Amino acid sequence: MNKFCPHCGKPIKPTDSFCSHCGKPVVSSESEKQLMPKRSEIHSNRLKSKKRNIIIGVIVAVLVLIMGGWGLYQHGRNSAESTVIGGNGRLTNAEIKKIPRKQLAAWAILYADKKYGKKWGEAADDLRSGHLTIKSYSKYRFGDYEISATDGSTLYVINDQVGYLVSKDNKEITYVGNKSSYSNRSVLSQIYPEIKSENTEKNVNTWNDNLSIVTGKSDENASDQSSKTSKKTKKTVSEDKLWSSNQNDELISYMDEFGDKMHQSYEHYTGSGSLTTAAGQEYPSWLSQGRFKLSTGDHDSRDPEDMSSIDLKWNPQVTSEDSDDDTYNVVAIFNYNGKSAEQHITYLFCFYHGEPVALVDQTTNGDYTIVHATANKDLTSHFEEIANND
What we know:
With about 400 residues, the protein is α+β, with helices and mostly antiparallel strands.
């Protein structure tokens, strides 16, 4: 049987492996059949490859799910076991809900110590020394005011003068006491940043471990009320006082809110030392040293020589007996210093003829200190409300 080269077509011998004409290799048809894979084998191999790829994909997907679940488990476990809330310098809403009540108590007291004065300062000292016990109540009477815990909040009493309410979600603290109320404070945006900047985490953790929180009896302070009521019938000259420490605390609270709203940080005169403005005045001594002029705000009276001279004095003990005096009796001083002398704002809260008046000093130079009644209606109304509601 003749055989032909599949490349050049020339006749070759059946036994030739290479063409004697073109030199290319020649494979017999039988060999070709043996070398060519069967159609069924090709199909089978394709199915095996496809199944292998599917199996590998499933295995990879399972491993990813297992690793992801393990990561979430570890994160949740670590969060649950963590005893330091906000330890990374930031505080989230989720962390706020988990704050232990001792830790929140320490934060509340340290913040109030800085913002609200003496009564809270004593509590802060007890906290640092490890001798503070706080009692929780559903309601408690602070003097003439009964405070109740509502909407899932909890009332904590420091003493018979001050305490605080914690909202159900721990996001807000309301400072209360023997007056209507202090203002609300946000744990996230106000209290926590203040505490982190003023105290080390180690100190705060040590202090909150030392304090005790117990449940008070609902009628515990009831026996005191009859004696307190009877004392009201023995009023003396003190009832003629126009200003009290309670009112002062309430004004401090309001000015904190006012400063936050105006994006200004006000410092208040605490009764010792002096309060220095950016323009150089040192209050309260400046009240007796400076020459004060009262501006009425009229545009045709800009010359200090055309303004009325007034007398001011530091007199937080002012009584109704001082009402006949023409002196402005200053009971509270708050000052904000900007970046320059031109930016200082000093509020002098006074009683003049027995009536509350809020004066503003923004004087930067000259022979006189020019003051005028504040045009801020919100500030005026709040001072009048505080002055008339002791």
